[in-house]
Amino acid sequence: MTDLADISVRPARADDAESIWPMLRGVIRGGESFAIDRGLTRDRALKMWLEAPRATYVTEHQGEVLGTYYINTNHPGGGAHVCNCGYIVAPQARGQGLARAMCLHSQAEARKLGYLAMQFNLVVTTNTAAVHLWQDMGFDTVGRLPRAFDHPRDGLVDALVMMKWLDGV
Amino acid sequence: MTDLADISVRPARADDAESIWPMLRGVIRGGESFAIDRGLTRDRALKMWLEAPRATYVTEHQGEVLGTYYINTNHPGGGAHVCNCGYIVAPQARGQGLARAMCLHSQAEARKLGYLAMQFNLVVTTNTAAVHLWQDMGFDTVGRLPRAFDHPRDGLVDALVMMKWLDGV
């Protein structure tokens, strides 16, 4: 069991790629939660995760990277005050509060970066752990997209749009 | 008055850039309806409109380009069966049914390209003409994003997520 008091979250560095890739690969190839091309190459996936976003972070426990997340502007122009985030927890560290810790961290970081709200565009409804966690963390379900996600086992399933204003963070 | 029977919609070509840019510039600099960086340069804007999407079209009337739209995959991977579109009508041709004509055309094209549904991610609620048109064309409001768009005059206003399944198209 990972003691949350022992974990730290810090900005990702280029040399975290080796630690991030196995986590990212699992999520991409599995294709159950993120809307990312399932055949994306390692290079493109790492660019997408580490270079394209506004900021990327990793969570460490005793020197081991067990999670990663990014913050990005959800839409430019008139939408640029709203950010989007994506979180991955390593399989061996699931169910121990790391996603919650990263989401809390991301809300504070988002405020520092000047964002006023956070939006998740496509929360797959079969990913019930995520749905419940975001609800518990104060995200409102502001939309439900009928059959918007093609799940590898369940077929076309609904996805939620979830949003939280960061006023109180 | 433009006679809709006289208009044609065709794929955009590189040499349409000169006709497209004034329309695109107006919408971008105005910043009231599209979530695009208001200071975007001509080159970047034209790349975004003509090269990044899956397909881009123009509407002509007597050889004059009076409208343009794009079709793009809204999310890759598990979301790749849903497309997104954006439409612009030249100021001198507004209120004559061109947006409707382009949206009808886009639904048929989207089907040809293999998409099953069409989603608009950020329909600004102050853009009432667009909201009513999409409703009239069978798009459902599947979400309402509180204060998700920073309007140049009205400040933070709500935006809608609208979606239509293309089964019957």
Total strands of chain A: the figure is 7
Q: Span between N and C termini of chain A?
A: 28 Å
- What is the CA-atom radius of gyration of chain A, in angstroms? 15 Å
Determine the fraction of residues in helical runs of chain A and give it as a percent range.
25-40%
The percent range for strand residues of chain A is: 35-45%
Helix count from the secondary structure assignment of chain A: 4
Count of discrete structural domains of chain A: 1
**Per the principal axes of the C-alpha atoms, what is the gross shape of chain A?**
globular
CATH class of chain A: Alpha Beta
Sequence stretches where pLDDT stays below 50 over 5 or more residues of chain A:
none
**CATH H-level superfamily title of chain A:** Gcn5-related N-acetyltransferase (GNAT)
The SSE order of chain A reads EHHEEEHEHEE
Oligomer: homodimer
Structural classification of chain A: alpha+beta
CATH topology of chain A: Aminopeptidase
Give descriptors for this structure.
7 strands; alpha+beta; 169 residues; homodimer; 4 helices; globular; Aminopeptidase; seven-stranded mixed sheet
How are the secondary structure elements laid out?
2 copies of one chain form a homodimer.
Chain A lengths: L6 E5 L5 H14 L11 H10 L3 E7 L2 E10 L8 E8 L8 H15 L4 E8 L3 H9 L3 E12 L3 E11 L4
Parallel strand pairs in A: 4-5
Antiparallel strand pairs in A: 1-2, 2-3, 3-4, 5-7, 6-7
Helix pairs in contact in A: 1-2
Task: Walk me through the structure.
The structure is a homodimer of 169-residue chains. By secondary structure, chain A is of the alpha+beta class. The first copy, chain A, has one domain (4-165): Gcn5-related N-acetyltransferase (GNAT) (Aminopeptidase, 3-Layer(aba) Sandwich), CATH 3.40.630. In chain A, 28% of the residues lie in helices and 36% in strands. Chain A contains four helices and seven strands. Chain A has helices spanning 17-30, 42-51, 98-112, 128-136; strands spanning 7-11, 55-61, 64-73, 82-89, 117-124, 140-151, 155-165. In chain A, strands 1-2-3-4-5-7-6 form a seven-stranded mixed sheet, with helices on both faces. In chain A, helix 1 (17-30) packs across helix 2. The first copy, chain A, is globular. The model of chain A has no long low-confidence stretch (mean pLDDT 95). The A-B interface holds A 28, 31-32, 34-38, 75-82, 117, 119, 121-122, 124, 142-152, 156, 159, 161, 163, 165 and B 28, 31-32, 34-38, 75-82, 117, 119, 121-122, 124, 142-152, 156, 159, 161, 163, 165.
